[in-house]
Design a protein that fits this description.
This protein has 61 residues and is of the alpha+beta class. 23% of the residues lie in helices and 44% in strands. It has one domain. A hairpin with a 5-residue loop joins β3 and β4. It holds the Pfam family YhzD. InterPro entries: YhzD. This is YhzD-like protein.
Length: 61
Amino acid sequence: MRTYKLTAFEKTGKLIEEETFTAETDDEAKEKGLALLEEKALTEKTHRLASPAGKLLLFHT
């Protein structure tokens, strides 16, 4: 399992949410990240999901 980091921000740059979770693959992490964003109503906020290697899997401004 690999550890991924999801963060969401206000337009001002203020951190709204920061969460880490584990997944087997980048695709599984994308699914989990999107589910977390939808659950917390953050899909339209600035957000990013980074892999352990630093690759951006999800990014929205």
